[in-house]
Design a protein that fits this description.
Two copies of one chain form a homodimer.
Chain A lengths: L2 H17 L6 H8 L3 H7 L3 H26 L6 H14 L2 H13 L1 H11 L1 H17 L8 H17 L1 H7 L9 H15 L8 H8 L1
Chain A binds a DNA duplex (16 and 16 nucleotides) through helix 3.
Amino acid sequence: MSESRDKILVASLHLFARRGYDATSLSMIGEATGLLKGSLVYHFSTKDAIRKAVLDGLLNRWKDVLPAILMAAASGENRFERILGEALGFFLAEPDRARFLLRECLDRPDDLQERYAKQLEPWIAVVADAIDKGKETGEIYATVNTRAYIWQVVLMILSSVALSPLADLMVGEDDPRQDMAEQLSRELIRMAHQSLFCTPKTSLKEEKDHG
Amino acid sequence: MSESRDKILVASLHLFARRGYDATSLSMIGEATGLLKGSLVYHFSTKDAIRKAVLDGLLNRWKDVLPAILMAAASGENRFERILGEALGFFLAEPDRARFLLRECLDRPDDLQERYAKQLEPWIAVVADAIDKGKETGEIYATVNTRAYIWQVVLMILSSVALSPLADLMVGEDDPRQDMAEQLSRELIRMAHQSLFCTPKTSLKEEKDHG
DNA sequence: CCTACCGATCGGTAGG
DNA sequence: CCTACCGATCGGTAGG
């Protein structure tokens, strides 16, 4: 509908992600959108309303993408790798999503929990059920703490994407041929896989051999 | 030496960790320390100087603790678990350390990298060398990307401690007998171990059996 | 009457 | 360490 509204949301996500909510002024958002401060207030009555709209847009997008990811990987080979790869892809396509969410986790955990519990919990439950079934069949380590495992994987996804600029500086490059984000994603998936499944899958090696 | 100086640093770490640097005003720090705004400027000429002093104190403390951790676990059983456990303990003892560092990673990666590269890199190199040697002996998966692995484990430690309030709300309690922080720490160590060593160590199970 | 803004300014607070 | 302030900028609102 409103062109300005969307521009405000896009610019605000970027600024909130990079500088944080408190360090972002309405005039900065105005400068990034070619609007004046007063115009922002016309669209969103308060600064906090902008933050909530950005968060809603992000969670709604994720809510739409997540089922598609799980369905697309419902069958076939390398289900686990594909699901994690798609989840990583969602944030890597726009790292500000990860940065903003990580900041919200730090700044307003209660606010995030309200929205999360309603919208995303059912899908986490699906993943948790799949893991618990794998435990029963013996495919997955019985020692896995399902909810804690999911949370740690989510944290790795969010933080490794959000802090990729720092990784570039600190981790250095083992293999200069591929970029750091790619290396971190591959290692994350390898760690998540290796620490979940009893029988070491050869899928990662197969990919290499086939290539 | 200066009693007020220390009070300012302790109160500032707490406020920076919880609210962020930009959202923390000098009068807030003054209120927490019983000082007035002008008095803070007497001890630290600028607000940024307080931040740097807090960061220095934190990194120096860690620089002192890290060698002790590595030495103490130089021999004996469950070296890996003990090293990770001690590292987790350092942040769990004062979660604001993890929150503050995570915020600095987001807000000022360049500034953090300057201090990190000089002080902590050599110790990361020690861990990296140990992992690379384990690869040669076949004890550790050859597919491990050493630097990426270390970085992902560091991220899990920092973020799981920093965001523990959110974990309490979102993860729920599989086992109400032990608290969430304990569950997350155990699962983190299990994941890190399982995804590194080829031969599944029975150390974690042994601990249980012996208890 | 509506939308999408503007220039100017409100009362308070920021770091110094 | 406090009082007394500064230039500027904060989020938000006024009438047009």
